[in-house]
Amino acid sequence: MSRxxxxxxxxxxxxxxxxxxxAVSQLQALGFDVLDKSAExxxxxxxxxxxxxxxxDLAIIGGGDGTLNAVAEALIETQLPLGILPLGxxxxxARTLGIPTDLSAACEIIANGQVKHIDLGCVxxxxxxxxxxxxxxxxxxQQLNKEVKQQWGVLAYAATAIQVVWQARPFWAEIRQSxxxxxxxxxxxxxxxxxxxxxxxxxxxxxKINDQRLDLYSLETKHWWDLLLRLPAIKQxxxxxxxxxxxxxxxxxxxxxxxxxxxxxxGEVTTYTPAKFRLIPQALPVIVPKTSEIPGLAEETxxxxxx
Length: 307
Known about the structure:
Tumour Suppressor Smad4, six-stranded antiparallel sheet, single chain, 34% strand, 29% helix, Rossmann fold, alpha+beta
């Protein structure tokens, strides 16, 4: 019996509109009964998933990390297995899960892969797959417009980062974890759930998106040129041993600042400090390649997800 798949492709994503018909054809050839509701997508996508959840066996989402973030809550509620077509700019969640950007290969994985449960992060009620951060990364997000991403692809992140680093100014923040409080003067605080973020940067070199752990780092360098020296280590997730970089791990953090500061979740500014971060373990079933060698996945353990 053919599997019934709800397909939602973001036509505004970097490769979305041009690949929609190919995705439908490829999925049908692989035996799926495709219910294509891409035209109803946009901001209505969560309601579309809820509406059709009892008529399909899985949800296939085509777009980038922002598109996936927009439907995360509906996916958790319905518990539909998620198939990913990486059609965005950064595609950091797909990268973490070992899903290639080649459309045919991604469709093959949806048809023949395995289902794994992944964790999600949550800050002030806003979900994130990859990372939530404040400081330098927000300035990068604010300068990364659609046109730049369409033209330069993933290189847009690196180019924009270089432009804004020299303007970076440290700010005071308090990080609370359990019964301890740490006061820091920092350029950026990032809380990661998955392995990759920001167009291929690594949160921490041993991070897994199902390890039931959030990884926090704070860049407490004194000058912007110090940050430039550390960028290669930060990109590879090997910054834990560097002076001026603080790292913590856990399932809950609280961050406060003197004035409210914007926080970006998976590339979109969605909330402000004061912020409460928490982990939602084993939150979502996702279809991944049928192999044990996926850098961003640990061996699965049992657990329950509760929002």
